[in-house]
Amino acid sequence: MADMGEGGGGHEKGGKKRAKKGSTRVDMTPLVDLAFLLLTFFVMTSTFSKPKVMSLIYPAKPKDNQVVDDGPKINNAITFLLSENRIFYYEGEYYPIGNTKGKPATQLSETDFGPTGLRKLITEKNNYVLLNVKKYDAQFAKRMITDKERTELIKKAKENTKALKVLIKTDDKAVCKNFIDVIDELRIAQVGMMAPVDLMASEYELIKAKLK
């Protein structure tokens, strides 16, 4: 790996011989091979962290002959409408004025983004999932179930018909920060089924009436 070369001989004044100095040359080729071997070792044995993302459920697109203004048919659901730093909502199915089912027209309620507003609302509505999560966490702490079993049980609880479903709709005046705040609150409340969907024309009219 290293070669010793000779150089620098000669005589000094007075006829004395000057000591020869050796020069060192290091061959770096084996070190390069070692570096690649170590790199390969760490790549093959390391576990890469998975990206932390939140899955969103997107509803299927309506068919050509389907009336979009009928509203989605889902149970135990709440729909949030965002506009101008304000948040409105209604529960259950949406019924426009003069709907064919003869149901009373949907009325919007309003809340805020504070802990006693949005967070309290969705926590109370998603109480079924939160109680199950608390139960499974306790069982996991006592080593009654494994972490994998706990994850599967929580997933099933979120998919249960008793779990809260959330639809999020925004108009052209909605603020992106408010949308992110809603998503964060849904994660805190362990809401597993949520979907951003398009705002219907009649819903937009209700929002404009509230903003006046």
Would you summarize the structure shown here?
This protein has helices at residues 29-45, 115-125, 127-141, 147-159, 176-188, 201-211, and strands at 2-7, 21-26, 77-83, 86-91, 109-111, 165-170, 193-196. It has 212 residues and is an alpha/beta fold. A five-stranded mixed beta sheet has the order 5-4-3-6-7, covered by helices on one side.
Q: What fraction strand?
A: 15-25%
CATH topology of the domain at 68-126 and 164-211, by name, is Nucleotidyltransferase, domain 5
CATH class group of the domain at 68-126 and 164-211: Alpha Beta
Q: What count of helical segments does DSSP give? A: 6
The count of DSSP E runs of length 2 or more, i.e. the number of strands, is 7
Described by the principal axes of the CA atoms, the overall outline is elongated
Biggest beta sheet attributes: 5 strands, mixed
Computed Rg: 34 Å
From the 3D coordinates, which CATH architecture of the domain at 68-126 and 164-211 would you assign? 2-Layer Sandwich
- Gap from first CA to last CA: 83 Å
As laid out across the biggest beta sheet, the strand order is 5-4-3-6-7
How are helices and strands ordered from N to C? EEHEEEHHHEHEH
Fraction of residues in helices?
A: 25-40%
Q: Label the structural class.
A: alpha/beta
Mean pLDDT: 82
Spans of 5+ residues with little confidence (pLDDT < 50)? Answer: none
